[in-house]
């Protein structure tokens, strides 16, 4: 921070203030010095005691803080060493709170507060505070206080510092100089303030000494600091336009869940009343993207995702996630993107991103060396970190970068992202639910092909989703009629609305508008729903009843034993059931997840497995299809075929087998020739067999 402008009377006023108001606090600090070295005060406490001083802090902060810190040095306390305390102020008046996008030149040099998400942090670096230069002629040491970015050097060997008074050359001595820790961070405005797809704006903030290393990317903070401008350079030239940056005075972090969503007593009353509605689940569904026709099961699932299950800390230190991950795969033009964009506007703390990475951090996080770091490494948060404790909507996830693919597993399951590179070693939290959409590789979804072959995503990543829905666009007279009528009527309603707004004739009436808009009107408006969700997530932590637990357990065991050869479920699915049941209870604000909740969870998963996890040959659900891309029966067949080829090779003279021989042998074992072809393809793709130049097969 720039150190300047000693003002005797101002220092004296602060000295008086500290003596009167903070003596005991400073004495306590003295006992913990230098571990603790900041006196942090609430603005309003200063205002109460001395409104003039408080006012000066806001409008002449550099000078006022400087003299206040000078005054702190004069306070007489018994301490082992001389105290050098920082003076920090928090909770400054509303009038000083500025949206990052609204920061204008007239705020320069004043004390302001900005609210937002930490997007980037640099590594912590020592910065010169007082530089010690040694004269090369006489050996005297000059100490120069460094208050700017550019190193200030002595112009001569000052006599008043014991030097020889000559113009000389100097050598910087790092051992005699004193340093202070410094860090630069970037704050991005909260997504809540940004409805309508606007790009978030950012501001750089400089932190010093005990403020460094305290925030991580993804944190929600209020930074109180002094707005200042920084010259921009083009090559060696200074430009006349400046960058805006802040020198931090204090940082407040938001810890309370969904602090940004305010629920008043009145809201609470309404929420409690709504929770008792017997049609609550239908009404919730009807409040999700009402302009989108159909997709009822998907919408039910999205409601459950919105409320989420309970994250649990086990005695052995492991943590299981409560967030429900969902994936929509389907034909183009089936409103997937529309749905994601709606959910990202509805859910508190949500981030909308495209798989096609827009920043270096991509979907998770990255350590980069860019302009921001001014030569240092910077840790930058991606979508899943920014959506911590919220919802990350990721469109076209199949188009994501290679680097994201590997880190996404950990980010989704452990909900943490570790980055270790250069001076950066951090673990960031990504405790968010993921709602992703993917398009099929071949343009259209093929019901008869395993899902993993149709989306460009590794099966292991697919298995991290609790729910996967395939949305097909198949012509059907009945649904086409309904969908067309839904879309057209809502457009007509919209036309009447615009007409009434712009033109004052008598052609249309408000009644007509209401009539056409009726079915695209959400039952609960988004504002209320957001409050409802925040309320439920803060206050409702349901526990499974014994009956519900038994239902889930029986379902799991029955399912696994009903099919001997295939493995329909893994413990991962069982966890998905639990999360869905918990969320279902939360929707009713019930502290108990009962039998109905368990059944609702089962029915949703059932629907999803029916569509994507069905083994087409046996008609059974088979989670192997999702986990590995191959059903159990396919797997068996490939093994059988491999045995056949092995035997044929051993019997042949050139250690290979002809296609015709393989097919006829396989037919004896009851495998159709069409399936043999399919399996041969698969085996050679997996590198288990190879084709000889003569067109025969050999074992690798
Ligand atoms: P996708 O991302 O699946 O390719 P989009 O979300 O871009 O599709 O949707 C394309 C357009 O079709 C959007 O304007 C959307 O509103 C419309 N649309 C598609 N399906 C429906 C539906 N079921 N109800 C209403 N509109 C729909
Ligand atoms: Mg799309």
Strand portion: 15-25%
How many beta-strand segments? 26
Q: Share of helix among residues?
A: 25-40%
Gyration radius, in Å: 33 Å
Bound molecules: adenosine-5'-diphosphate, magnesium ion
Description of the molecule:
About 1% of the residues have low confidence. By secondary structure, this protein is of the alpha/beta class. The strands form eight sheets. It has a five-stranded mixed beta barrel with strand order 3-6-7-9-8. Strands 13-16-19-12-20 form a five-stranded parallel β-sheet. Strands 1-2 form a two-stranded parallel ribbon. Helices cover 38% and strands 23% of the residues. Helix 8 packs across helix 18. The termini are far apart. The chain contains 23 helices and 26 strands. It binds adenosine-5'-diphosphate (ADP) and magnesium ion. The site of adenosine-5'-diphosphate has 13 residues, from helix 9 and helix 14. Adenosine-5'-diphosphate (ADP) binds next to helix 9 and helix 14.
């Amino acid at each position: 921070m720039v150190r300047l402008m000693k003002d005797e009377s101002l220092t004296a006023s602060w000295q008086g203030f500290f003596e009167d108001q903070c003596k005991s606090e400073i004495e306590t600090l003295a006992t913990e010095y230098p571990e603790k070295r900041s006196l942090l005060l609430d603005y309003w406490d200063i205002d109460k005691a001395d409104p003039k001083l408080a006012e000066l802090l806001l409008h002449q902060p550099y000078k006022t803080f400087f003299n206040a810190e000078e005054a702190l040095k004069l306070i007489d306390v018994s301490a082992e060493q001389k105290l050098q305390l920082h003076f920090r102020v928090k909770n400054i008046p509303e009038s000083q709170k500025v949206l990052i996008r609204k920061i204008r030149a007239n705020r320069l040099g004043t004390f302001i507060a900005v609210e937002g998400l930490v997007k980037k942090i640099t590594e912590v670096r020592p910065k010169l505070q007082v530089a010690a230069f040694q004269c090369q002629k006489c050996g005297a040491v000059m100490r120069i206080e460094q208050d700017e970015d550019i190193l200030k050097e002595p112009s001569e060997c000052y006599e008043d510092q014991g030097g020889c008074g000559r113009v000389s050359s100097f050598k910087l001595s790092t051992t005699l100089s004193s340093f202070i820790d410094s860090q630069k961070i970037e704050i991005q405005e909260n997504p809540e303030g940004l409805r309508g797809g606007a790009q978030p704006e950012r501001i750089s903030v400089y932190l010093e000494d005990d403020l460094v290393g305290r925030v991580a990317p993804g944190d929600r903070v209020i930074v109180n600091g002094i707005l200042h401008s920084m010259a921009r350079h083009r090559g060696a030239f200074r430009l006349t336009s400046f960058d805006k940056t802040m020198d931090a005075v204090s940082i407040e972090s938001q810890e309370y869940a969904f602090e940004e969503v305010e629920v008043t007593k009145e809201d609470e009353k309404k929420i409690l009343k709504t929770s008792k509605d017997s049609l609550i689940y239908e009404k919730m569904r009807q409040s999700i993207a009402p302009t989108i026709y159909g997709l009822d099961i998907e919408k039910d699932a999205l409601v459950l995702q919105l409320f989420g299950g309970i994250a649990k800390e086990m005695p052995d230190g492991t943590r299981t996630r409560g967030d429900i991950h969902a994936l929509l795969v389907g034909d183009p033009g089936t409103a997937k993107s529309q749905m994601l964009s709606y959910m990202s506007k509805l859910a508190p703390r949500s981030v909308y991103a495209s798989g096609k990475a827009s920043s270096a951090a991509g979907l998770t996080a990255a350590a980069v060396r860019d302009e921001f770091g001014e030569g240092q490494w910077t840790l930058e948060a991606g979508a899943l970190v920014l959506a911590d404790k919220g919802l990350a909507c990721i469109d076209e996830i199949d188009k994501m970068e290679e680097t994201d693919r590997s880190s996404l597993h950990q980010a989704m399951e452990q909900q943490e992202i570790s980055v270790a590179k250069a001076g950066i070693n951090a673990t960031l939290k990504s405790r968010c639910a993921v709602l992703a959409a993917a398009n099929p590789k071949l343009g259209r979804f093929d019901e008869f092909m395993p899902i993993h072959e149709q989306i460009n995503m590794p099966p292991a990543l697919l298995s991290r989703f609790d729910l996967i829905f395939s949305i097909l666009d198949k012509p059907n007279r009945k649904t086409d009629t309904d969908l067309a009528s839904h879309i057209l009527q809502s457009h007509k309603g919209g036309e009447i609305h615009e007409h009434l707004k712009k033109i004052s004739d008598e052609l249309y009436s408000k009644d007509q508008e209401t009539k056409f808009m009726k079915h695209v009107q959400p039952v609960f408006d988004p504002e209320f729903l957001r409050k409802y969700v925040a309320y439920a997530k803060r206050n409702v932590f349901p526990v499974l009843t014994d009956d519900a637990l038994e239902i889930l357990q029986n379902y799991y065991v029955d399912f696994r034993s009903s099919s001997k050869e295939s493995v329909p479920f893994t413990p991962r699915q069982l966890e998905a059931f639990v999360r869905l049941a918990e969320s279902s209870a939360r929707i009713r604000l019930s502290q108990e997840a009962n039998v109905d909740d368990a059944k609702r969870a089962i029915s949703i998963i059932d629907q999803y497995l029916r569509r994507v996890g069905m083994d087409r040959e046996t008609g059974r659900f088979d989670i192997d299809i999702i986990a590995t891309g191959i059903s159990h029966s396919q797997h068996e067949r490939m093994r059988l075929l491999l045995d056949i080829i092995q035997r044929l090779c051993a019997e042949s003279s050139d250690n290979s087998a002809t296609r015709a021989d393989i097919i006829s042998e396989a037919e004896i074992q009851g495998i159709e020739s069409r399936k043999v072809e399919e399996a041969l393809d698969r085996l050679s793709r997996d590198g288990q067999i190879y084709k000889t130049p003569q067109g025969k097969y050999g074992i690798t």
